[in-house]
Design a protein that fits this description.
This protein has 604 residues and is α/β, with parallel strands linked by helices. The chain has helices at residues 46-54, 87-92, 98-107, 121-134, 151-163, 175-181, 203-221, 227-263, 275-279, 321-329, 363-367, 384-390, 395-398, 407-420, 437-449, 461-467, 487-498, 535-562, 567-570, 572-603; strands spanning 8-17, 20-30, 35-39, 61-66, 72-75, 139-143, 167-171, 184-189, 192-196, 281-292, 295-306, 310-315, 336-341, 347-350, 374-377, 380-383, 425-429, 453-457, 470-476, 479-484.
Length: 604
């Protein structure tokens, strides 16, 4: 921390909405050079706190001091741009020097004469960013700055943040972005502000310590956990452990795909001996090409996607990702080449614009449009209340109309609706926008349990690392390449094989670090050779199958009971107790399966 006095000091901040306190007694300071990530679940007040610092909301109580002469710039989560102004005119309307404004627009790959009404969502975000940065403030407040940005733009922003001399407070769901730029963490949770002198890369270790200490204190008091505390103390940490187990499974799937790619010897043919592959085929593209006017989007690209594959599609905005996606799913025909689709494909498409939602209907009605209280999830009936609870909605929200939901909640509901539809191919277009990190963990968990084929279009590098078996990179000028593994694997392979820089559309002031070496890879590398199990380990390995079988039977019995459409109405308390037990049983099952997997790997 700097020896100079803080640029901003807040003491005993308190704010209430409708008589309900959002937070009370918050105290913190901001020093020059600090890169602070502000994290917490949706609805905890992060954006509100940023608006207070920006001067748009007054607090109910507390002291707020800013050093004289300190300039603050604020990027809100949603910006409405005047449609008939050019980008340059918009920036200089804030008394910014025209040369400075034009420089930032150029760095972000935007023409100064472009009209606002012609901009895509990503382009609007770049203009809004250029507006905030061109003010060259002492404190920069950013609310979800990476939303709708492509990876080159995000990487440019990372470089800028690392070299920015002032202070930054940023809200973001992008774990990779936060890990690379932050050196301090503020965590807003249940009205309390926790502070850590380290950046986001230390967040999980730090919060696990806080959860553990809370558990110890509650055990001493012999106090029964409230439902929210139970979710926090067990749900978050258990989900992290389960996702680590899924990462190991994903690592195995990547190895299988890598071997399959190596066995092709550069050819994509389903010939003799490939009957098993043919029966598993989802789509096979051979030397497909596509142009729009004079623009070459796809040039002689080939790929084969089999059942169970998990494909991530990346690329700068405007390079042809959507066109490639439409060709692969059969909505658009290529100019040349062939596309062969497998049989009995049930495809569900998740649109980032959330067009599948009826905002005038309730959450319940969106999931059960024909009436009733049952939703079929992967062939099994679920009560709509229990299913929505899986997506972190509470009982009071279920009957409310979808139009009053926040952006993150609408995204969560749209995902719940998409994942409930019967499918064996799931296409998700930017599913992580507006989601908080807890919901992202939930989505990663659910996609890990999905048995079909996934095709994901995403700019979230951490999400790609945790969900996909290969990455298709749409690089512009018709060039498309496929790399086995997640985003970090793509970076390392691309650098080794081509020496190309990832960014094409953004001008960089400093070289990009392609891989953050300070962040340890979550996927363990399995050592060669057989390791002898201890007596206790071997006994646990022998007993776990029986325990797993018992837990599976218990879960099935509870789910059958909860599936009764009249059960909730007649036994609300028992419904609640069984729902809570179901969550704990699933947690125990996941932990047991993870332990069995670890011991099995050690034994082999």
């Amino acid at each position: 921390m700097s020896s100079k006095p803080p640029l901003l000091t807040a003491r005993d901040f308190s704010l209430s909405f409708g008589g309900k306190p959002l937070f009370e007694g918050l105290s913190f300071s901001i020093h020059q050079g600090e890169k602070i990530c502000l994290v917490g679940r949706n609805g905890t007040g992060k954006s509100t706190l940023l608006k207070i610092l920006a001067g748009f909301i007054e607090i109910d109580a507390g002291d707020f001091f800013i050093q004289p002469g300190t300039k603050i710039a604020y990027l809100p989560q949603d910006v409405i741009l005047p449609p008939h102004m050019t980008a340059l005119d918009y920036l200089i309307s804030f008394n910014v020097d025209p040369h400075v404004a034009a420089n930032y627009l150029d760095k972000l790959g935007m023409r100064p004469d472009i009209l606002m009404q012609d901009l895509s969502g990503g382009e609007q975000r770049r203009i809004a960013l250029a507006s905030a940065l061109s003010k060259e403030p002492d404190i920069l407040l950013l609310d979800e700055p990476t939303n709708h940005l492509d990876i080159p733009a995000i990487e440019w922003l990372e470089d800028y943040m690392r070299n920015f001399k002032g202070a930054v407070v940023v809200i973001s769901h992008d774990r990779s972005f936060l890990s690379k730029i932050s050196n301090r963490t503020l965590w807003l949770d249940r009205g309390i502000l926790y502070q850590n002198k380290k950046g986001y890369s230390d967040f999980e270790r730090w919060t696990d310590e806080i959860f553990a200490e809370e558990t110890r204190q509650m055990d001493k008091l012999k106090s029964k956990l409230r439902l929210e505390q139970e979710w926090l103390l067990y749900g978050v940490t258990a989900r992290r452990k389960r996702n680590q187990g899924r990462l190991r499974k994903l690592h195995t799937m990547r190895e299988q795909r890598r071997q399959r790619e190596q066995n092709k010897h550069g050819q994509l043919k389903l010939g003799k001996g490939d009957g098993e592959l043919s029966s598993k085929l989802i789509v096979e593209a051979k030397e497909i090409s596509k142009k729009y006017g004079e623009k070459n989007l796809i040039n002689n690209f080939s790929t084969r996607i089999l059942r169970g594959d998990r494909i991530g599609v990346i690329g700068a905005n405007g390079t042809g990702k959507t066109t490639l996606l439409k060709i692969l799913v059969g909505d658009t025909q290529p100019d040349s080449g062939t596309v062969k689709k497998g049989k009995k494909i049930d495809l569900v498409y998740f649109d980032q614009m959330r067009d599948s939602l009826n905002l005038s209907k309730s959450l319940w009605e969106n999931l059960c449009p024909t009436g009733g209280d049952q939703v079929i999830v992967r062939g099994e009936p679920r009560h709509v209340m229990a299913y929505l609870k899986d997506f972190l909605f509470d009982d009071k929200q279920v009957r409310g109309v979808a139009s009053i939901l926040s952006g993150g909640e609408k995204n969560r509901l749209a995902l719940a609706k998409a994942l409930a539809q019967p499918s064996n191919v799931l296409v998700l277009d930017e599913p992580t926008n507006d989601l908080d990190m807890d919901t992202l963990d939930l989505l990663i968990e659910m996609l890990g349990d999905y048995e079909g084929t996934l095709i994901l279009v995403s700019h979230d590098r951490d999400f790609l690392n945790k969900t996909v078996t290969s990455v298709i990179s749409v690089e512009g000028d018709g060039i498309i390449e496929e790399y086995v593994g997640g985003y970090d694997d793509y970076l390392s392979q691309r650098t080794v094989n081509t020496g190309k820089n990832v960014s094409k559309t953004i001008k960089k002031d400093v070289p990009v670090k392609s891989v953050d070496s300070s962040v340890e890879s979550p996927v363990p590398v399995l050592k060669e050779g057989k390791k002898r199990l201890s007596y206790n380990q071997q006994r646990m390995l022998d007993l776990l199958p029986g325990k797993i079988n018992d837990l599976e039977n218990e879960i099935n019995q509870i789910e059958e009971k909860l599936a009764d459409p009249n059960f909730y109405a007649h036994h609300p308390q028992e419904f609640k107790a069984l729902t809570e037990r179901l969550g704990l049983a699933k947690k125990e099952l996941a932990e047991s399966e993870e332990t069995w997997l670890e011991l099995s790997i050690l034994e082999t």
